[in-house]
Amino acid sequence: MDALYTAVATANGREGRTVSSDGQLDLPLAFPPALGGNGQGTNPEQLFAAGYAACFASAMGSVARQLKLDVKDVSVTAEVGIGKDPADGGFGIGVVMRVELPEHLEGESGAKLVELTHAACPYSKATRGNIPFQIVIE
After folding, report:
1. Reading across the β-sheet that carries 75-84, which strands appear in turn?
2. 18 vs 52: CA distance, rounded Å
């Protein structure tokens, strides 16, 4: 793959900071309360959820243009969970992608749009077969 853009960010752990090379992202990091932290910062799961939701929504826009569908009222929410991975006892993540479709995209056309989007989304391609993943159409 020839990269058209490369994002660069540096972090020093879950209780530190993460900063992008261009300074546009500069955030404190903290464990969420559910993992014993104080929640006084963002965490990798939130960052991954935000990136995946944005990528999926953008991919949907691209697919929709090809299909001549209007997706201006679509909403995409990524839920990224972290927990013990039974395969190795370490930690793993899973994703539930919630896609809220407007009335005109309910049914088969909306389901096909979401399916094609999942096939096209770079985050979906990167994680396919590697993590538990579920799509919920609302």
Report:
1. 75-84, 91-100, 133-137
2. 18
Q: What is the DSSP string of 14-32?
A: TTSEEEETTSS-EEEB---
The span from the CA of 135 to the CA of 118, in Å, is: 9
> What is d(CA 112, CA 29) in angstroms, rounded to the nearest whole number?
38
End-to-end Cα distance, the chain: 35
pLDDT digits (tens, 9 = 90+) for 71-125: 999 999 999 999 998 889 899 999 999 999 999 999 999 999 999 999 999 999 9
Query: Rounded to an integer, what is the distance from CA 112 to the centroid of its chain?
Result: 20
Distance of CA 103 to the CA centre of its chain: 24
Give the H or E element holding residue 108.
helix 108-120
Relative to beta strand 26-28, strand 75-84 is unpaired
Q: pTM value?
A: 0.94
Backbone angles phi, psi at 32, to 5 degrees: -70, 160
Encoded amino acid at 107, one letter: G
CA dihedral of residues 14, 24, 47, 34 (deg, nearest 10): 40
Sign of the alpha-carbon torsion through 113, 107, 49, 24: positive
